[in-house]
Amino acid sequence: MKIVLGRDDLAAVAVGAGKDAGAAAERVEVKPVNKASRAFMNDNAYDICEIPLVTLLQAAAYDKPVSLLPVTTLGRFQHQTLVTLGEQGVERVKGSTVGQRSWSQTTGVWLRGFLTEQYGIALSDVEWRTYEDGHVDEYTDPSWVKRAPEGVKLQAEFLAGEVAYGIMGNELPDDDRIRTAVPDALDAAEKWASAKGFAPVNHVVGVSVESAKQNAKQVLAVYDALAEAAAAKGPAPAPVDLNPVGFAALRGPFTAAANYAFEQEVLPRRVEFDELVERTCAALGVSASRLGA
After folding, report:
1. Rounded to the nearest 5°, which phi and psi values hold at 260?
2. HEC states along 150-214?
3. Nearest CA to 200 among 63, 94, 52?
4. CB 112 within 8 A of CB 123
């Protein structure tokens, strides 16, 4: 059983649980962890793999043999990921060029959703620029999204002022000139989460359908261990839990992200959360309540 998880503590817990349940479990280290997604989605290279939330939605839309283990491995607020070298103020985004690594990147899907829903900035108000493909072979960017020339990097163009804004999470450059486009971004993010009742989850755990069917006992053991590790961290911080576990806790963020993704042409059709639940339960041969429904 090949397991890819970015955090050392979660990887150790998962591998240990798999071995205890009788699997020949091993960790495959991929850094950064999002680089494992393409091989997992298109080549079935791993059994259990950390993947971006939107990649999991695309798996359902394109009928990839991947299902959801409802565990958050990377939860964070997202409003701070829209950055600029210029003045703060979201209204300035209109008419500007905004760069993001990939159009289907989960951070970008959330941020563009905030722009349209909270700030009244339509997708057509912005010139969008991407730098690489997403994780699913069948997907291509919308025709109205421009692709940077081969070899050009977002960070370099952003620091050179060739794009006015960038959507960047972990890949944010270390430069004192950078500021969030959203004033008081953390406060704005907390207010959004409080109003919605959930956080904009970034990464979750995927499991290959084949592995889930053939190794249900071991996969469920990994899920239980990861869920227990999350619970051991103590009560969720205010205003919402950044690392929710279980189908019930993940319904909100998945539903919101799916709506944003469809509106942004990241998904070719609407994806309902119950599809994900049913796929996982069918593969593992369990009821939804077994995984926190």
Report:
1. -60, -45
2. CCCCHHHHHHCCCCCEEECCCCCCCCCCCEECCCCHHHHHHHHHHHHCCCCEEEEEEEEHHHHHH
3. 52
4. yes
Sequence-ordered alpha helix ranges (H) in the chain: 8-20, 37-43, 53-61, 106-119, 154-159, 185-196, 209-214, 216-231, 247-263, 273-284
The sheet with strand 2-4 has its strands ordered as 26-27, 2-4, 48-52, 201-208, 66-75
Cα 277-282-288 angle, rounded to 5 deg: 45
pLDDT 10s digits, 101-147: 999 999 999 999 999 999 999 999 999 999 999 999 999 999 999 99
pTM of the model: 0.95
Alpha-carbon dihedral sign for residues 68, 71, 72, 73? negative
Q: In whole angstroms, give the CA distance from residue 94 to residue 80.
A: 18
Write down the pLDDT at residue 203.
97
Which helix (H) or strand (E) segment is 69 a member of?
strand 66-75
Structure tokens at 267: 């998904």
Other CB atoms within 10 A of residue 235 CB: 7
Instruction: Judge whether 251 and 72 are in contact, CB under 8 Å.
Output: no
Distance CA 170, CA 259 (A): 24
Per domain, the residue ranges of the chain are 2-76+200-291, 79-195
Q: Are 240 and 194 in contact (CB under 8 A)?
A: yes
Q: Which CATH number fits domain 79-195: 3.40.190, 2.60.120, 3.30.450, 1.10.10?
A: 3.40.190
